[in-house]
Amino acid sequence: MNVVVIGANGQLGMDVADEFARNGDEVRRLTHAEIDISSGDSVHRVLAASRPALIVNTAAMHHVEQCEQNPLQAYAVNALGARNLAIAARQLGAALIHVSTDYVFDGAKRQPYLKGDPALPLNVYGNTKLAGKAFIQTCTEKHYILRTSALYGRNPCRAKGGRNFVELMLTLAKERDKLRVVNDECVSPTSTAELARQMVVLSRTGAFGLYHATAEGSCTWYEFARKIFELMKVKVSLKIATANEFPAKVSRPKYSVLENNKLKTLGANSFRSWEDGLRSYLVSAHHLN
Ligand SMILES: NC(=O)c1ccc[n+]([C@@H]2O[C@H](COP(=O)([O-])OP(=O)(O)OC[C@H]3O[C@@H](n4cnc5c(N)ncnc54)[C@H](OP(=O)(O)O)[C@@H]3O)[C@@H](O)[C@H]2O)c1
Question: I need a surface site. Which of 95, 154, 166, 260 has the fewest CB within 10 A?
């Protein structure tokens, strides 16, 4: 299959391109320098030349504070960009895989969100991602939209300046004797390698629609940090903090755990527990044995 990956030098995009290539697909990797998804002309010109059977969009403006400061730009990339890709996909007869976020929910449910639960984003980022989903759903039938959460992977996250949470914790543990990590925000940390594998599995089904796609189970950031140090046998004094101690300029959900209910109904859920995903990451990134 001819696959185009957009955002191909991003944290997720690199793993996605590698995973499709590993599975025998012909992969064209497109970076921001080659395609600007917020421009309909750019999208049409570049994709028409590639004639893909599948377009995978991992590109987004997802730095939450920057989205809040530049809502028009965030809307242009996350909402209109998704629309541009959906229109191009329809015109070319291609399927579209698009990545969305747990931040479309406000966190009030305090139980894993099902894909049909009403979304109520707390910030510009979440709102623009929600609008992107709506555009795709109305512009092309052949779409898979995957909502995911708290990504970490071997490649640097470009929007967040490189280091993922795992690497940040390991670095801080070397620099400080004591660490304080919030214990009142609950997520499902998801490895980009596992999400990439899930995309390949889903792309073979033809079962289009909206999916929740995260590692199984959930934890607080404190519990995630504790597991990282336990697996890596790092000795550091780790203390519980509350989110209030680190006042944020932008509201975020305190609970954004997603339930992969539609993947499970389809018999296509390839995610393992967040602990197993973390162990595999540490094996590959830090030679954990
Ligand atoms: N990271 C997380 O924790 C997380 C959680 C939930 C969902 N997500 C979603 O997962 C996806 C991938 O995130 P990631 O962690 O891989 O981010 P990333 O490393 O920042 O990669 C995003 C990529 O998008 C590109 N890009 C930005 N604006 C673009 C535009 N207008 N046209 C074309 N390309 C553009 C960036 O290129 P430049 O850097 O050159 O601009 C970069 O290559 C995003 O859709 C994000 O919303 C992420």
Answer: 154
